[in-house]
Amino acid sequence: MWRLVFAVLAYVLFAAHVMFHGLGLALVAAVLIVNILLFVPRSWARTANTILLVLAGAEWVRTAVALVHERMMMGRSWTTALVILLGCAFFTWFGAWLLHHRALSGWYRTGSRSNA
Fold first, then answer.
1. Would residue 115 count as lying in a domain?
2. What is the DSSP letter of 40?
3. Which of 5, 49, 71, 101 could disulfide-link 76, Cβ–Cβ 3.0 to 4.6 Å?
4. How far, in Å, CA of 33 to CA of 102, rounded?
């Protein structure tokens, strides 16, 4: 179950990203509420979380491209921003990948709690 920490932190990080861009507290709350799905022991919940985390990672990449482009046009340094945002994307995708770890697969498939 400790492997879920990565997905939870990825959602919290993404909620901070949404809040930074001023997309509204309702969307921030929705992103955080999705964390509850991580603890629903059903295969559809794992699939939904995987899709949402992959999309969140894609949003990090989209933001990285936009920010790098903007900084290049202004003649400012862009490498640090690129490394940070791509790090966020890979962390998010790593959290999605861990949902399919062998230790969690049994829990999501059967719906029973195990000591993973």
1. no
2. S
3. 71
4. 25
At 21-54, the pLDDT tens digits run 888 888 888 888 888 888 888 888 899 999 999 9
- Does residue 106 belong to any structural domain of this protein? yes
Tell me the two tokens of residue 103.
């230790």
Total tally of structural domains belonging to the chain: 1
Which of left, alpha, beta for 111 (phi over 0: left; psi -120 to 50: alpha)? Answer: left
pLDDT, mean over the chain: 89
**Residue 66, token pair as written in the block:** 């936009």
Q: What is the DSSP letter of 3?
A: T
pTM confidence score: 0.85
Residue 116 lies in a domain: no
Return the closest-CA partner of residue 49 out of 108, 2, 99, 94: 99
